[in-house]
Amino acid sequence: MTITEGFLDHPVFKLVSETARELGVRAFVIGGYVRDCFLGNPNKDIDIVVEGSGIVLAEAVAAKTHAHVSVFRNFGTAMLKYHGIEVEFVGARKESYNRDSRKPIVEDGTLEEDQLRRDFTINAMAFSLQEEDFGALIDPFGGIRDLASGIIRTPLEPQQTYSDDPLRMLRAIRFATRLSTPEQEFTIVPESLQAMREMADRLQILSRERIVEEVNKMLVTDRPSRAFELMEETGLLPQFLPEVSRLKGVETVDGKGHKENFSHSLQVLDNVALFEKEAIEREELKDYDADGNATLRTAPDVWLRWAALLHDIGKPASKRYVAGQGWTFHGHEVVGARMVPKIFERLRMPLNEKMKYVQKLVNLHLRPIALVDDEVTDSAVRRLLFDAGNDIDDLMLLCNADITSKNPAKVARLRRNFELVKEKMAEVEAKDEIRNWKNPITGDYIMEVFGLEPCNTIGKLKEMIKNAILDGEIPYTFEAADAYLRSKAAELGLHPIADNQ
Question: Does this model's pTM top 0.85?
Answer without folding.
Answer: yes
